[in-house]
């Protein structure tokens, strides 16, 4: 028994080393740099500067756009995942949805620049139907549209898995008891898939908070987020301390979101199953 435990501990060493080197060490470095100003002097000024009107407005903007991206992704992904579970070749369709996520993000951004540009395909269609060419690129619409397109697979997958795990007998029982399709969805299907919805929202909302490449290429810097500010401080102003301070705030927010949406997952899921039963 002791030999099994010792072997198990040995197998954990590579994992623990990976966590220490590529998760804990970078976070420690970010926290360390957040206490230094642009001249390398130790200071708490970065944190007091972060809570000024400029950065608070930027924070609210980041949360607002991340929320919009998450909501639109959910509204599109849930019906898509629901439809996938009822198709004949579901694995093939799922592969086609996941396939765009294998393409480099920069390549997809430049592809949309071509599509939404003044002489791109979207404006050509608008011109052909008589609406005329419009300014699509470098707008809030283009930024949210491209972001939702990029994050859709990360919302579809957990919801699809949650839908696949539902016992069909629960749906049949609901129908046999006279429940309508909407009532069955509201009282049985959706509560049983809430864990997948939470996982999908985590997978979309958290990275959407720190978007920076799309804000520059698609939104033309009209959308300013915390991710954009981090990029500017590290690459342009060379104020690593302020950039690290914003990164510390994002890490804390991401940890809080994961705790809030994940701590009661098991209990809520069991309660929903009892309620549906």
UniProtKB/TrEMBL annotation:
CDD domains (alphabetical): TM_PBP2 (cd06261)
User: GO cellular-component terms in the record?
Assistant: plasma membrane
Keywords, ordered alphabetically: Cell membrane, Membrane, Transmembrane, Transmembrane helix, Transport
InterPro entries recorded:
MetI-like, MetI-like_sf
Domain of life (superkingdom): Bacteria
What residues does the ABC transmembrane type-1 domain cover?
59-261
Instruction: Tell me where it resides.
Output: Cell membrane
Q: How does it sit in the membrane?
A: Multi-pass membrane protein
In the record, biological process GO terms are: transmembrane transport
Its family remark reads: Belongs to the binding-protein-dependent transport system permease family. CysTW subfamily.
Protein name per its UniProtKB record: ABC transporter permease
- Which species does the entry assign this protein to? Paenibacillus protaetiae
């Amino acid at each position: 028994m002791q030999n099994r435990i010792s072997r198990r501990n040995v197998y954990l060493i590579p994992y623990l080393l990976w966590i220490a080197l590529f998760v804990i060490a970078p976070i420690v470095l970010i926290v360390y740099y957040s206490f230094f100003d642009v001249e390398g002097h130790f200071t708490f000024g970065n944190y007091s500067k972060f809570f000024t009107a400029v950065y608070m407005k930027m924070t609210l903007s980041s949360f607002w756009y991340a929320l919009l991206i998450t909501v639109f992704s959910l509204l599109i992904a849930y019906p898509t995942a629901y439809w996938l579970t009822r198709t004949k070749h579901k694995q093939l369709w799922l592969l086609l949805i996941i396939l765009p996520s294998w393409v480099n993000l920069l390549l997809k951004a430049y592809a949309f620049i071509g599509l939404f540009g003044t002489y791109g395909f979207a404006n050509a269609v608008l011109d052909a139907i008589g609406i005329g060419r419009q300014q699509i690129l470098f707008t809030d619409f283009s930024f949210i549209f491209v972001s939702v397109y990029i994050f859709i697979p990360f919302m579809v997958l957990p919801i699809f898995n949650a839908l696949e795990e539902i016992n069909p007998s629960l749906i049949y029982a609901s129908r046999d008891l006279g429940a309508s399709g909407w009532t069955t969805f509201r009282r049985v299907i959706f509560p049983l898939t809430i864990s997948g919805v939470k996982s999908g929202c985590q997978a979309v909302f958290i990275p959407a908070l720190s978007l920076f490449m799309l804000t520059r290429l698609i939104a033309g810097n009209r959308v300013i987020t915390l991710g954009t500010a981090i990029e500017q401080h590290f690459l342009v102003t060379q104020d690593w301390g302020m950039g690290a301070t914003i990164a510390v705030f994002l890490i804390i927010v991401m940890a809080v979101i994961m705790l809030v949406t994940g701590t009661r997952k098991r209990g809520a899921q069991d309660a929903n199953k009892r309620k549906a039963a």
